[in-house]
Amino acid sequence: MLATLILLLSSVCILHQATGYSEGAPDNACLSLRPEHLKSEQKEGFPYEIILGTKQLECSDSPPIINFTLKGLKGEVFKGFMIQARMGTKTVGTFEPEPIDYMMMDCPGDRELVDEEGLEVWCDKIVHTEPGKNTATHYKAEKRNSMTFYWKPPANTTGDIYFHYTVVKDFDTFWVNQQSEPLTILESRKR
User: Fold this and answer.
1) Bridge partners for 71 per DSSP
2) Which segments constitute the Reelin domain (predicted)?
3) What dihedral do alpha carbons 96, 104, 137, 21 form, nearest 10°?
4) How many CB atoms lie within 10 A of CB 153?
């Protein structure tokens, strides 16, 4: 009886480990962007890139929506991902829900630019925003070669923003906390 119980519990643990997070990254991965796969991350041969729709913008009357694409090089596919925009170590901006091919999460770190009423100020104009949604992750572990994301930069901010991201090729093969080229936000020339 005891042997059967041990075998059953071992099977459940192995099954849980093998399934990974096919429905998105866990909340506790917000800071490190590290999946809990109980394996070591890959250190070399990163076969993916983020391609920015624009590399530079300036403040305008309404917050611009930036698109960028996570793409596998030479036809490489991925099953999972987690992406955040950061200025230094601070997570900034929000992912847009439409068109949605990914799940959004609220990780700590991007609410300093929102006033008490939940309004975000953009170039001295007030716009409505939904709280959070500063991190994108997969919601299905489907093989893909590329995926396009839509993201809104933070208000009243200038400087370089980098997209930090983790890509999971399969349960045993993943790269953690990679960094895109910078997206530079310039002071508005209209001020």
Assistant:
1) 49, 146
2) 11-191
3) -160
4) 20
pLDDT in tens, 42-80: 999 999 999 999 999 887 656 688 999 999 999 999 999
Whether domain 22-186 has CATH 2.60.40.4060 = yes
Give the Å distances, CA to CA, from 103 to 13, 134, 135, 151: 26, 11, 8, 13
What type of residue is 97?
A: P
pTM check: above 0.85: no
Tokens of 183: 């997206």
Domains of the chain, residue spans: 22-186
Instruction: Report cis status (omega within 30 of 0) of the bond before 154.
Output: no
Q: Are 50 and 163 in contact (CB under 8 A)?
A: yes
Phi then psi for 87, rounded to 5 degrees?
Answer: -115, 110
Percent residues over pLDDT 90 in the chain: 37
* Cα–Cα distance list, 17 to 11, 23, 26, 157, 169 (Å): 10, 14, 14, 41, 16
Whether 41 and 174 have beta carbons less than 8 Å apart is answered as yes
pLDDT tens, 80-112?
999 999 998 888 889 987 666 787 888 876 434
CA distances from 133 to 104, 137, 172 (A): 5, 10, 28
